[in-house]
Amino acid sequence: MGELGAFLKIHRVGFDKRDPAERVHDYKQYFDLPDDETLSEQGGRCMDCGVPFCHEGCPLGNPIPEWNDLVYQGRWQDAVALAHTTNNFPEFTGLICPAPCESACVLQINDDPVTIEQIELAIASKGFEEGWIEPQQPERRTERTVGVIGSGPAGLAAAQQLNRLGHTVTVYERDEAPGGLLRFGVPDAKLEKWIIDRRLKLLEAEGIVFECGVDAGRDVSVQELRRRHDAIVVAIGSRMPRGLDVPGSELHGVHPAMDYLYQRNRWVASQEGRPARDPEPGSEISAAGKRVVVVGGGDTGMDCVSNALREGAADVLMLDVYPELPPSGRLAGTPWPLPPKRTLTTYALEEGGERRWASQVTEVIGRDGRVAGVRARKVEGTSSRDLEAVPGSEFEQDADLVLVAIGFTHPEHEGLVEGLELDLDARGNVRAPVYGTRIEGVFACGDARIGQSLVVTAIAEGRRCAKIVDRHLGGTGVALQLRSEEMFAYEDDDPGSLRHLAESAGSVTVGDAFWAGPRD
Fold first, then answer.
1. Is 220 helix (H, G, I), strand (E, B) or coil?
2. Which residues are CB-neighbours of 231 under 8 A, at least 6 positions away?
3. Which residue from 26, 178, 163 is spatially nearest to 92, judged by alpha carbons?
4. Does 96 score more than 60 pLDDT?
5. 382 — pLDDT class (breaks 50, 70, 90)
6. What does 96-113 look like in DSSP terms, one character per residue?
7. pLDDT of 168-190, one tens digit each?
8. What would the mean pLDDT of 272-280 be, rounded to a whole number?
9. How is domain 274-405 classified at the CATH fold level?
């Protein structure tokens, strides 16, 4: 696997980042990939671990050591084929996934991990450049139809998997273009939208139909959706923002982070001649020339910092309740192989702005109905759940714009969820223990089912949900119970060989699927 002992002599080489002073003036991707020779060397750093913890870190179970070795050998086309066996959209995860696989890399114990995310992006990029990634239409069509509600990563993954199994799939998206938060929540500096459009063209060529500007449950009734389709997949994400529950949070100039990011992404789209919905008159949000305070230190907050700097904000301050990281970059609560909740720096902080650790907003200060500043204090604790105020640490910060980026509570209930009369769990997510809801023929996946999570988790959710839907539709999937996770095998040609494999296998891992005999 790779070059023997390469991890001892070859150092990590990450993305080639553009100068922050330059990139802050445009919305182009802020980094480039190294050359093929460097990528090959980086693939060679993979250690051939006895237990590759990167598999444990990746919700998709990507074959990471295997593709590292293929890149090391220069077998790019094989790497492209391998990456797509577990991940429908490696270009998305290669760009915006926080890479829990790298946090779990064995090298991470006392060295820099393998550049897994970078190699994944390079594999996908090479595949498109060489024309190796092509539409895959099903050999035959069933008579079953599926309506997928929501076109984020979970919905797109479910749609592609179901389409390839021969079912006719229509994806409904309430916004003007597909992609969900990939398109409207992630800045172009991290994910240029032509990359999404490139993949969407492939999905359309495979036979998936997209209906945009359609708010399922409102523009089209749930009764009509049930009439049109044999199954419905609810993949609407977790879009209800968690509010800032302090005095003054209702003042003009205090906004959920995603409202701001949606407007900024649409503004960039309009500058490039792409379809973009204008904000309602009087609802415009701009950071230009303003003193901006971002509440929350996660990825969404960082994206707000980056956009505000590009708009020309007077200054940008991020207030994060998390304690300051030690030089190792890991708090005691997130030891290896767990992914850290924060990193020492980010692309946004490299561009400017300031982050203050262990700072909790207690009040938004107003003047004439508008935000004028925030009142905050220093806190101690390991997360937002166990904070204790530090006596005498109160401070005030002037602000003209406050962006609240402290997460999401659950999917929207009004409309589709209420119309379908779906049950909810204690957190307000759609209750679907094994992707099926209590309503026959209605399924849920992604953030709508499990709460806000990562792009890689959403794709995994969509893929797994598709298997359950296919079984409901009478497909060739055969249910197995492997380590408490339902898996399926899809095989028409030689089931006997799979049966023999299952009988002779000493052990299987999550992600393996074997023939289990005819269905009841």
1. strand
2. 144, 145, 146, 147, 441, 442, 443, 469, 472, 473
3. 178
4. yes
5. confident
6. H---HHHHT-GGGGTSPP
7. 999 999 999 999 999 999 999 99
8. 92
9. FAD/NAD(P)-binding domain (3.50.50)
